[in-house]
Amino acid sequence: MPKNYESDVLALPIFKQEDSSLPSENETKNPPFQYVLCTATSPAVKLHDETLTYLNQGQSYEVRMLDNRKAGELPELTNKMVKSTVRVVFHDRRLQYTEHQQLEGWKWNRPGDRLLDIDIPMSVGIVEPKTHPSQLNAAEFLWDMNKRTSVFVQVHCISTEFTPRKHGGEKGVPFRIQIDTFALGENGEYTEHIHSASCQIKVFKPKGADRKQKTDREKMEKRTPQEKEKYQPSYDTTILSECSPWPDNAYVSTNQAATPTFTNTPLFFLYIHQHLPIYLIGLPTASIQDTQKWLQKNRFNSYARLFSHFSGSDLLKLTRDDLVQICGPADGIRLFNALKSRLCPRLTVYVCKESPQESPLLETHGTNENGDHNISSSLRGTK
Questions:
Q1: What is the three-class DSSP state of 260?
Q2: What is the CATH number of domain 5-242?
Q3: What residues have CB less than 8 Å from 375, skipping those under 6 apart?
Q4: Mean pLDDT, residues 315-320 taken together
Q5: CATH classification code of 268-340
């Protein structure tokens, strides 16, 4: 069940004198919709943590679409259809940042497959279900709030497919099922956002979710009563909690090449010798194309496709843990060191434009009494 954060705050002693300034439970606005995933939550989740639900790969799960409006609330939606988009996304923010690259890699390994589908024959009350080839992790449909509506979803990706090492489901990354609902706008399209909610899930190979749920239940039974008080019970259903709408163009990137100016320098190496890279120039402002060249030059060819939409600044934003999670321990650490290291130059060369005036650093060439060629330098200027 959703947590009541306001009641948690009021329970703290420091806020006891501020009760009158905070809204009461009766004044709390209920969401207009409620989405219920009809499968049990894990019992091995601590009290104040978000619920976690285990799903089997490819299995159809019912999500009930409930009209939660009070009398007279949002009258403009009465007897009208709304559109909902259901999608599976990453829970981890680091993977959200690289979502486009992660999904492209998944598509490359499993051509023709989708991460999420709607089981149309089992669904009830949905109209015009659609999937887009460019959005493998999302599907949309229309539904009437006055009628019973249940959409059955199938998640085809498993949590271990996005981890560097394939240890099994419980070591995999968590996902989120998110539903965004829109009303018909003035332009005749369903663009007016009304409500969004999501829940945390992990996806296992067939029957793996049942085994994991059983394992968690057995572990909890072995705990003492005092330890059990720290954990929330397993609920028969999973209620999606309110969240921000998922951005439509979160990972659309432009492929425009950077203009080689002083403030937008291309990525290149300065070579004094063919095999002696002195210093990496312009990485923070490198274009996507130049970043690809740098990856290939530094023997990261196998990850060029994964970082195909990354500029130099995007790469520099990734932490060591991010790169290890994306590329694995060996290549992740090697890439991190290549990005962050600063090579000590063996030779520094200073150059300047030729000037008619005499330079303060004056080099004189001459011949000594023995006929040997020598170079002497004299520094002229104020002390």
A1: coil
A2: 2.60.40.720
A3: 363, 364, 365
A4: 80
A5: 1.10.150.50
